[in-house]
Each structure stands twice: as structure tokens, then as C-alpha cells.
């Protein structure tokens, strides 16, 4: 809550980035640490982005959690990845996957549970990042039926997926970008990049 859409609070927490990254290894702290890091990356001003580059030190832990975790840990790991990848290029991302022995197609095909509200949103945000980062992901996503998945998300978006904060099943703070808009961005990027490839 402290970092959600609050630049002032984010600035005060910036000096703890290294400790928060270390806490990603602690089963008791990792969920809250990932949430704080995600919100820092998302809401801190552009003038302090260099201070957040250290978040990429924890990306191996995040990628591993995405491949093995379930429910809340999967959700917060996907959320942190959507923000931390902004500090990486395609080469750095591929190197991290290689270090962990994860194939890019294996990572792309990982089916995500929809039992936790924000997982589909974060998965779409990662898809957008990958497609904009390297056009080879267009071919990869086309091969695994991503267009159909995006259509399914478009047709089945629930109201709860539009919120940053939930209290039980009640949404308290809406995302600035609705899930439907992310779906539209994904479709547009996919068509634009497919056109550039032909």
C-alpha cells in the first residue's frame, strides 16, 4: 500500500532496494518484497529509474518463481517481472533464462492459473514487453496460439481484474490501464510487428 501510486513514498523506500531484492529469497518475506519492488518500479519517477536498476539482480529468483510457484507467489513474481524487465534488453533477458536452464518457448508456454485475479493482466503485460523487445516472440506466440488466448481474455475479463487493490473480493483501486486496453495493445502490436516481418 505504501508504494502504490505514491511517488513520495517510493522515494523514501528507494534506499532499501538491495535489501528488498535479498528478501526475494526468504519464503516469509518474498511476496511482500516482490509487491514493494513492483510498485517502486512502476510508480517512481523517471528521474530515479537508475536507482531501480538493482532490481534486475533478483530477476533469476523471479523467473524461477514464475516457472515453479503457484497462486500469490506466481502473481507477485509475474507482476515484478512486468516492471523489472523494463530495465533489461532482450539479450539480458535471454541470458537470465539460459542461466536457469529455461528455454524461451518453455517460458512462453507456461500456462498460468486464473485463480488469482491479476495473473492474466501481468501475463499480457509480459507478452507486450516480449513482442516489443524482440520480434521473434511474435512467431513464438503465434505458434503456441496466443491470438486465441488473447481473444479468450477479451471475452472473459472480470471486473475484479481491473483493480490494483482488493479487500476480499471487493476492488478498491482501479488500474490506470484497463485489462481490455492491454488486450487491444497486444493485438495492435502483434499485427504491426507481423506486418513489419512480411
Descriptive report:
The mean pLDDT is 79. Helix 3 runs parallel beside helix 5 (71-84). Helices cover 61% and strands 5% of the residues. The protein has eleven helices and two strands, in the order ααααααααααββα. With 198 residues, the chain is mainly α. The chain has two domains: 1-102, no CATH class; 110-198. The chain is globular. The longest helix is centred in the C-terminal third of the chain and has 19 residues, at 179-197. A hairpin with a 2-residue loop joins strand 1 and strand 2 (170-174). The chain has a two-stranded antiparallel ribbon.
Topology record:
Layout: H1 7-13, H2 17-22, H3 30-43, H4 59-68, H5 71-84, H6 90-100, H7 104-109, H8 119-133, H9 136-143, H10 146-156, E1 163-167, E2 170-174, H11 179-197
Helix pairs in contact: 3-5, 4-5, 4-6, 5-8, 8-9, 8-11, 10-11
- H/E topology pattern: HHHHHHHHHHEEH
**Rg from alpha-carbon coordinates:** 16 Å
Kindly name the structural category.
Answer: mainly alpha
Biggest sheet descriptor:
2 strands, antiparallel
Strand content: 5-15%
| Number of domains as seen in the coordinates | 2
Taking the alpha carbons of the first and last residues, their distance comes to 46 Å
Shape: globular
- Estimate percent helicity: 55-70%
Unreliable residue stretches: none
- State the helix count: 11
> Which strand order do you get reading across the main beta sheet?
1-2
Strand segment count = 2
